[in-house]
């Protein structure tokens, strides 16, 4: 059978659809991890560590690879979402994991919506709150379409490409010392463990770890036979994140190496303005908006996917619940502003989600009632255990440091 319009066989159509879903899942994870917070963190840490921040990026990418590949594989092989796997490992654990991820996703989505508003403000000069509302309407329209998943795949893929092009352009404009960056990536003059845990937590913490895996599951890509496809998609997502991260690092390093002063009130915006003048500021607006809107979509979609299996009503109306999630986030920003105390508390708890989630799925990888006859690679298990231990210790330290701030 051929598609009359395109002249494609059914098999070719299926391959095209699968390729679109794989790219969509990869970019959903990548763009979800590159939000407003990511832009600010990368700028601030590059200013502090200069070329040695390259080492932080290298370590965080290695940890990302083991976290993502382990989690995506177990989700695909089991055919179950993260919370369902956790409940099979230990009854009730899935509900705890779902609560942490939904609470964290909702709180941080307030920051994502705020970032979208600031992006439109820098791009075209409109009020940030009005910009946030317009952005929320855009995100809501995606989930009102009949085939919302396919639309989301296309939107995040296009957004990811736009981000890469613009950030690479600004990196060229700032003329960074690439040679020094390469040397310090492997021989840093200064190491910041806080920067590592912050970057890893921000790029694969909370809901982000599950964004791509859950998207593939919803599209029907699961089972042992799907492992090569799932691996390719997860690695693609990490590569995209890495390209954006390295390009942004080099753009900031170019400014820092010239001795130019970065505005502490809005570090990433000042980097783009110093690097490319008024055009740079407008480009920053585009990048900030794209980074924020894709994070809004990713946070809402993945957070709700963690409660879909709890009741048939949620499963049936999950798109409308995603829309409600976005409305609540936007309303909170518009009428209350950022609830700093809640963000601090949830931010501290969010740091614990990665080791908890990854540790749970590593246990699941060896349970036949979850993965059947699948044999999980030992090298992935060892790498995953290292991530659990490192992130577990560092995030507990971060949590202990954050709690006193809540009572200041």
Automatic annotation (TrEMBL):
<feature type="transmembrane region" description="Helical">
    <location>
        <begin position="234"/>
        <end position="260"/>
    </location>
</feature>
<feature type="transmembrane region" description="Helical">
    <location>
        <begin position="319"/>
        <end position="336"/>
    </location>
</feature>
<protein>
    <recommendedName>
        <fullName>Divalent metal cation transporter</fullName>
    </recommendedName>
</protein>
<feature type="transmembrane region" description="Helical">
    <location>
        <begin position="378"/>
        <end position="400"/>
    </location>
</feature>
<keyword id="KW-1133">Transmembrane helix</keyword>
<keyword id="KW-0812">Transmembrane</keyword>
<feature type="transmembrane region" description="Helical">
    <location>
        <begin position="342"/>
        <end position="366"/>
    </location>
</feature>
<keyword id="KW-0472">Membrane</keyword>
<feature type="transmembrane region" description="Helical">
    <location>
        <begin position="155"/>
        <end position="172"/>
    </location>
</feature>
<feature type="transmembrane region" description="Helical">
    <location>
        <begin position="122"/>
        <end position="143"/>
    </location>
</feature>
<dbReference type="Pfam" id="PF01566">
    <property type="entry name" value="Nramp"/>
</dbReference>
<feature type="transmembrane region" description="Helical">
    <location>
        <begin position="51"/>
        <end position="69"/>
    </location>
</feature>
<dbReference type="InterPro" id="IPR001046">
    <property type="entry name" value="NRAMP_fam"/>
</dbReference>
<feature type="transmembrane region" description="Helical">
    <location>
        <begin position="280"/>
        <end position="307"/>
    </location>
</feature>
<feature type="transmembrane region" description="Helical">
    <location>
        <begin position="89"/>
        <end position="110"/>
    </location>
</feature>
<feature type="transmembrane region" description="Helical">
    <location>
        <begin position="192"/>
        <end position="213"/>
    </location>
</feature>
<feature type="transmembrane region" description="Helical">
    <location>
        <begin position="21"/>
        <end position="39"/>
    </location>
</feature>
């Amino acid at each position: 059978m051929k598609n009359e319009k395109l002249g494609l066989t059914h098999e070719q159509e299926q391959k095209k659809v699968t390729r679109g879903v794989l790219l969509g899942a990869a970019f959903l994870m990548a763009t979800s991890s590159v939000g407003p917070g990511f832009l600010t963190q990368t700028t601030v840490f590059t200013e502090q560590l200069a070329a040695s921040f390259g080492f932080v990026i290298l370590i965080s990418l290695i940890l990302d690879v083991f976290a993502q590949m382990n989690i995506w594989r177990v989700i695909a092989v089991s055919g179950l979402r993260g919370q369902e796997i956790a409940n099979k490992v230990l009854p009730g654990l899935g509900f705890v994991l779902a609560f942490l991820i939904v609470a964290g996703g909702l709180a941080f989505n307030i920051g994502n919506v705020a970032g979208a508003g600031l992006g439109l403000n820098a791009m075209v000069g409109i009020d940030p709150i009005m910009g946030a509302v317009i952005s929320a309407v855009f995100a809501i329209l995606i989930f009102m379409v009949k085939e919302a998943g396919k639309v989301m795949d296309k939107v995040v893929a296009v957004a990811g490409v736009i981000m890469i092009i613009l950030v690479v352009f600004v990196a060229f404009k700032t003329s960074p010392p690439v040679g020094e960056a390469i040397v310090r990536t492997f021989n840093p003059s200064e190491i910041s463990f806080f920067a590592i845990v912050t970057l890893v937590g921000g790029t694969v913490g909370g809901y982000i770890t599950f964004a791509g895996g859950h998207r593939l599951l919803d599209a029907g890509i699961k089972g042992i036979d799907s492992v090569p496809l799932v691996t390719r998609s997860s690695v693609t997502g990490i590569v995209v994140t890495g390209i954006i991260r390295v390009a942004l690092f080099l753009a900031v390093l170019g400014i820092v190496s010239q001795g130019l002063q970065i505005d502490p009130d809005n570090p990433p915006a000042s980097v783009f303005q110093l690097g490319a003048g008024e055009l740079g500021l407008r480009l920053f607006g585009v990048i900030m908006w794209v980074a924020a809107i894709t994070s809004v979509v990713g946070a809402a979609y993945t957070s709700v996917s963690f409660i879909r299996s709890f009741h048939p009503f949620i499963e049936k109306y999950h798109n409308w619940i995603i829309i409600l999630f976005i409305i609540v986030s936007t309303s909170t920003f518009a009428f209350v502003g950022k609830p700093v105390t809640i963000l601090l508390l949830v931010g501290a708890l969010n740091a614990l989600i990665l080791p908890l989630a990854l540790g749970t799925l590593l246990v699941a990888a060896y349970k036949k009632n979850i993965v059947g006859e699948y044999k999980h690679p030992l090298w992935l298990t060892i790498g995953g255990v290292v991530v659990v231990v490192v992130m577990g210790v560092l995030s507990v330290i971060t949590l202990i440091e954050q709690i006193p701030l809540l009572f200041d």
